[in-house]
Amino acid sequence: MPTIKTNTFPRVASVSTFGGEVSLALGEVPVAVSNYPGGFPSYLNELKQASELGPRSRTSFEALYTAKPDLIVGLGRMIEPYYQRYSDIAPALGYDLITVDDSNKAIAQTSKVLGKEAEGIRINQCFEQTLEKMHSKIGDQKLSGLFLTSAGVTPRAYYSHFMTVSLMERLNIESANGPSPYSAKTPYSGQVGLEWLIKLNPDIIFMYQGSKPQFVDSKIWQNLSAVKNNRVYEVSMAWREPEGPYSRLWVSMDIAHKAYPELFDAPSKEKVEEALCR
């Protein structure tokens, strides 16, 4: 784990939004951050103040060098292939962020490296408390659900260890797709044939918004209970990458609002800030 020597809060460059979110949660805007597909969500507007690093899969090392970061934080799959180039500029942390546990550990470690260990612990504690309060409010209500992605003929469903689906289950939405058949954390989604989908027949379906998938024109799809009951919801990019302190709160609140609109209002930046316990 790198040690940073500075008299002020370290200058953070974020390859993806994760490091930027941790920096914001600790009270500081990062100096540079990767571009976000479609633009930053409203709850991350402050990241617009940071310098742009270009797409996270093709980081501009010139822009990164110019930003003069003290620490680089990013996704492992983006950092590791070019680790030496990153570390020549500043110490680099790369994380594989798939599960809730991955998120908690990465937030705690990054906060510690930034000299804010207690604050990182507090961020994780407040997140857990927020989930517990939401779960208590839901009570005995139970649903079955799926989180789908794919623009092709056959949908893909995320397994229960994937963070967003784990959050669904914490909020009494049982994953109709169940756990992964693999021992490793990847792959974290798998194809679900329409014939199998009709057997699963979940109460509610969340679907990543993108180009219109071909399978929604199928008669089988039209016969799903969630479709008939207007309980299919298009969701944002944040649902696919909910690991940051802000994103995981936003996604949790969005799940709750869509699943139990009579109990929970739509998420807002103000609600997320409050739940960070700052």
TrEMBL record:
Coarse class of the protein's main subcellular location: other
Annotated compartments: Cell envelope
* Matches recorded under SUPFAM superfamilies: Helical backbone' metal receptor
**One Gene Ontology cellular component annotation?**
outer membrane-bounded periplasmic space
Q: How is this protein named in the record?
A: Periplasmic iron-binding protein fecB
Q: Which GO terms describe its biological process?
A: iron coordination entity transport
- InterPro entries the record matches: ABC_transptr_periplasmic_BD, Bact_iron-sidero_bind
| Sequence ranges assigned to domain Fe/B12 periplasmic-binding in this UniProt record | 11-263
Q: Which organism is it from?
A: Vibrio ishigakensis
